[in-house]
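The aim of this short unit is practical: by the end, you should be able to scan a pair of folded records and say something sensible about each. We start with the first protein, listed as its amino acid sequence and then its structure tokens.
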Amino acid sequence: MTPPRPEAPSRARVLDFAARTADLLERAARTAVAEAPSDGGGSNGSSNGNGSDPDNGSASHPGDGVRRLRDEAARAADGAATLVVVGEKKRGKSSTINSLVGVPDLLPVDADVATGVHIAVRYGEHPRAVAHLRSDGDAPEAPPRAEPVPLERIAEYAAVDPRTGRPRRLDVHHVEVELPVPLLAAGLELVDTPGVGGLVGGHAELALAALENADALVFVVDGSSELTRSELEFLGRATERTAETVFVLTKTDSYDAWPTVVERNRELLARHAPRHAEAPWFPVSNRARRDAVAAADSGELQEAAELLEESGFEPLEALLRRRIAARAAELRLANVVHVALAALAVPLAEQELRLRSLQQEPGLAAEVERAEEALRLLQPDSAQWRRALTTGSRDLKNTLQLGFRRSLNDIRRVAEAKIATSEPAALAEEFPAELEAQVEAVWLQLDNAARRGLAVLEERVRRECSTVLDTGNPDGRADGGAGGPGPGAELALVEEGAVIRAERGTLLPEMVHSTHRDGGPLGMIENVIPSVGTAATFGTVIGLLTSSVLLPAVASYAMLAVLTRRRRQRAELGRVRGDATRHLNRVLTELSTEIPAQITDHVDELADRLGLALDRAIADERLRLERRLAEHRRNLAASAAELAAARDRTKRRIGALTTLRDEGLALAHGLAATGRPDPDRS
């Protein structure tokens, strides 16, 4: 029998803990300012026992840790688990999203590849949609402009043109939809990415890139046939992108053999994508779900309940709530506790150090002086952290450039295969859209790689600073206490929004369709004459074989028509392939010109910002240590009564901080225990 799992701390408990922690830190900062010596050396009684050292960073920057904590708590309170919904063309992906939110006509479902831009469907008290627009004149750092969109007009902003396969609006960056739906209120956000409606060409790359920040993948198939090769390849590549996969099999009302299809799909997954072999499957009927909504709207509640049960959506929604929304909520709550503990660690370590000074421990002055010397080693241009920043940013640029060149090679390989194997009509209509999807996927993948690389660079440089600080910090840690932020922690190196920016429509030229005038007498002669000899020979052979007069003429005419048509088809194919090849070369040339420069500029800019932030942090830390040393010397000269009163105040503050820290550690333990894999997982 499996022992019961520990109950996760409720969101209310964690958010209350975060609020009390933030309030305490703010009060401590205000107390520090009020008790600080006005002349830099004032009486001992006013300079000891502060809730926070007015010169140690907590008072001079009282909002840094508190702001991070409040922001993290707000994300935990309002955040939702991100579900990326993926499926081949005409599998029922958009209909499934519509069914989950109970709005049958929300997302466009008629076009072949309906989704043209990123669409996020999340909870809101009132139904609304907003399109975020960019214009060619916008600066790269400018946020998209928000434009309200009626729900019934989402397709005008988010869909592609079914004739051309290109987005209807090139200025649309993404669309956000809010609905007062219980499933979304439970903590879920459904994401439909550009081109996810078909796992062909660049659409698979876009879906994979979108999974970088997803909590789960919802993979939609239907009951008509087993998983295709492209679907299995996609799932194999998605193995490392997401920790949770849910399969939805649609159209159970149209295909009676769907149970056999599910079993066959499980076999294929076990062989080709074993990571997903144990993922749950949910057979559903979007038609029954739509009819259930209509019945409920008409007041036929019993019929609506029966149709809802028939649709199969209730078990799917239950799993999404229980396994994905709840787990994502626990992760976000764990982040809140982690940030709170880090924020508490700094003032707690400072108060403990102050108590040592008030207790007049011998050797404390020497420890602070060694810390000052360690900081001086970080300041020269030859400091190790500066070399790490220089070499790290150079290596990151090289890595990103290499990855970008490889991505261009992949685009060329896939595009050339498409050009070589497609029929003229399909090539002319589908190639621009598929190439654009591939390019967008490269942008997303490059942005994800840049974020990861910059985070690694930041950690590496800060670690170099910490290595030096460890030699002199009185408590042996560069962070000032358990888990506290190190120098430069106030820098948000990887910000919200794209790191590598490339706006839709600005780098991608339109595909130019060449024309060939084959009408008129000259065009007819050009097309017909090369085939006349072959047609005449064919007719002569038929005449010799049949001894007929009429049949050779008919055979000659028929052969002439066939050969002329084939000649025109070959000419059209050559023309369209030439157009597609020229378009491919133009796009790759534009990308090769623009993106490498962006990589260099962005990495250099962010590396410079990190260096400046660390310089500022090192200077602040040195000033803090100098003032701490001066405070310790004042304590050595203070009276016994002054020291006793200051020690009492400091002990009370240490007690308050320790109580909160212990509460946070207990919350963290509970969240970690419930975050382990469920042994009863089905």
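Turning to the second protein, read its sequence before its tokens, just as you did above.
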Amino acid sequence: MEKRKLSALPRPEATAEMVEMADRLDGMEHIVTAELVDDNKILLLNFYEVSKLKKGKTEAAFRTFLSSDDYITQDLSQSKVKWLTAAFDNMQGFRLWEYKWDQKTWKSEHIPKVFIWTAEDKGIMESFFKAYCKETDENVWNAIDRFQDKVKAERLAEKHRKVLAPIDLRMEPIGEPSQDFTDWVWEQGMSFSRYGIYKETSKGKAEFECTHCQKTGIVDRSRIRLRNNEKGECPFCGSRVTYKARGKMPCQISDERWFIYVDRQEEGFLLRYFKAWRHIKNDAMITGSICKKRIEETMHEYSRCFCTFFGEKLMKESYEWGVYHQKGNSRWIPDEGNIACMECILYPGNLPEAWEHTPMKYSALEILAQNIPTTAFRYEDAIDIYLKFPKLEWFCKTGLNQLAKDVVKGYNYSGNMTGKVNYKADTIYEILGLNKVNTRTLQAIDGNHYELRLLQVAQQLDIQMKPEQLKEFYETFECNTDLLKEKNRRVSLHKLCRYIDKESKRYPIGEKNACMWGYSYNRYKERTDPRIERKQNMAHDWLEYIGWCRELKYDLDNKFIYMPNNFKKVHDRVAGEYKALHDKKAAAEKLRREKLAAKRMEQTKKAMEEIFSKNDGVDAFQIKGKGLILVVPQSGDEIRKEGEALDHCVGGYVERVAKGETNIFFVRKADHPEQSYFTMEWKNNKVVQCRGKSNCGMPPDVKAFVQVFEKKMQDAIQKGDTNGKKKQNLQSA
């Protein structure tokens, strides 16, 4: 529709008959007239507000033009041309119907709010929208609603097409990844997801099933250690597997990982994110499911990121597989952040060809991905960091794979890395802060930043650690540099690690990280071997045990005390002795504080006697005319009992009173001096609070008493009525 041509039509005016009729249209909000314009191709509806007609205003409020495939509304309330695109059901300040619910009849009713002026107007509208009318329609507005709904759907489809058509054009040339990628995913990337399922058949014998080679047979348990969740080798194919006791298997083990496949582009490359699932069912699940297989595997692509280089600058544009604005089927749409795929594994097979024409040509990330094929981390961040720190290539080429991963995680947040890396240094030795021998040691075990820190400290202490010793120490004590620095160790670190390894074989595994595996991002991580967890749990308890022995003054030069046999039993016994000693010290400290608090309160009482006169027969101080007395507590127990009686927290103030940080007084009724009433705290030469039962506020008599008490105390302190020591007792808090 030509808006300029339509807006040039004369603005309609209401007739005198319409103005007169307005007073009789109770409940109606608008009057509408209809006419055909532009050679009968457009239906024009003019709307007049009934409320304005009643005031004699004849201008139309707005007019709507409807063609066979479009509609638009002109706002006539202002002189300038203003167009509205909303349909009638969304137009502000306008409604065709009013919905009402009758509570008596339990029926709903739609009351019309627009009055069609003449039968001729109604006939024009019905004739124009004949194609949208149904026999069940009671009025023409239903047909107009259908028409406008159709136009809105077409408008939305066109709006979506403008967004999605370029995406379809960009995705069209992208084909399926190579078969080599699929094979690599299941053979290398998911190689951590291999299990040896066993069940004891007789003493020393077990039936063993390997999910990788899918062979089943009887094995001798004296030759192979079978423990649930521990890692080992398949006796048939030799692949590394996780042992699972058949009777302890969950219904289904679900292993999943994200993988990146890199496609070559003209000015960059495309990162394609695939998610792979492998489900391993237990026997009951196999019996109850339709698919009678032990293993089910699936893989789908969910995200794509186009990386384009403009010189050295990298620009990214991401898309995800989803439903665009809840319309239609799943397809490629702009990235809305619904796909969490950054922790992923990079396929190295085609990398040299995929980005040989880009600045990533010498990044060596394909070497890193090849060396740690089951480790997921943010490779997209690795690309960004390599462009800032090209020396990342050195880590990949020297076999420092775990450290390269840690550098990617910590480059922008170097404070998160325990082992410090000097990014501005010129050589790999200066970057790591290690000499050549220790650098080779770190390379030999593919150490992470914690093991780097251990080597850095060991080098400072002139301790030379072999690769197997460093790995053994880290698997036992983690990054405990304090143990390295300890000067009075009774045995070598190697012997200590061997002792813990031996004792930990029957040590409980504990609950470390137990509830987190399978949740959050941890389901993309491979769980630590339980044997290592046992060693770490025992090492933690052993260090705790040595601390207890020092406090108990045990002879740690005695080997049977320093490294006892049956450590768990000895640990629990010493824990009981340490608790008893701790309780004894705590009781002695409590008694000391009680005596100090009593001494402080006695000093306070003597200072108070110089300000207030003592009442005969009552151990208290009285301010005349208020019917209340002031009681100075004699011990910490009295303060605690006051807190229990009045249900507030003054019982926790005993230590503050003992330290002279505050003073506590009891406000009692003169005729019931033994009964708790209010508790007052005096601090910094003023009453900071006075609380009654359940921390209630002060009534008028208590408030007046406290004000008089505070004034007398301040006057006495200012006039110097007390000596220096007593004055300090009242001012110290």
